[in-house]
Design a protein that fits this description.
With 293 residues, the chain is of the alpha+beta class. The protein contains 13 helices and 4 strands. A 4-stranded mixed β-sheet has the order 3-2-1-4, with helices on both faces.
Length: 293
Amino acid sequence: MRAESTQADGEKVLLDAAAAFRAALGGRLLATYALGSLAHGGFSPLVSDIDLALIVEDPLRPDDANMIELVAQSQKVSGGPLSERLSVFWGTRNTLAGQVEGGRFPALDRLDLLENGRLLVGTDMRSGLPRPTASELIVAGAEFAVEFLAGVPWAASGGQSGLGSMHAIREDAVDEVRRPELLIGAGVRRLTKLVLFPVRFLFTAATGRVGTNAVAAEWYLARHAAPSRGLVGAALAWRMAEPSDRDEVADLLRQDMVPLYVYYIDDHIARLKSLGKAELARAFTEWRARLRG
């Protein structure tokens, strides 16, 4: 990332991608939206993803998925500042309403569209679309966590777990949670994501709202019985300014990272059992054991 990258660079990525999809889809592209921090605030050129949503005219066509993926990849490798951060979510009104299958729009990102989506081009198409249920949000977040944070292949997610570009998390996250030197070496973007993911999932599970970094962290820090509040507060600050003292960061991670994850996992084991998601709860239990060594 260029040191001088700004929010304006992120906005340009969105607008360039919107134009590319308009050229590819023509009149079938009904609306494009900014999601994530470029929609609800808190964008950081240092670490933030750039999330774009497309609503396409019904019905889906057989080549829509491949075509949209090709356009998205061409934009990501365009070489512009922050272009590699682009993540594209898409569907039709029927897929967003759950009437037909298709598209790429996990529950957490559908909620972000409904709550925070900022219309860039076209006509707002959100009226009448259903909100994801509380159980959908909990299960979607848990499936993402098991696959991309615990490193357990999870067929139920179908590769569609979202939250922006967070689907890029690798399977070595368990080692990084346990070994601060690995996580610090991966860079501040990955560092802040791995610290703040469980905080955001906890917030969404408890409130049914989108777990933005700032709002979720504020909610978590107000929970006086919650562990690792020093780490959560520090990670929120690191999103805007990379930490300079690696030893201090390592000490904080060594002290607080595993307790933070165990707290999140224990919370969700109970929630998943109450929803009848026994296999997913079992995967969380095994994840907990691996973290505890």
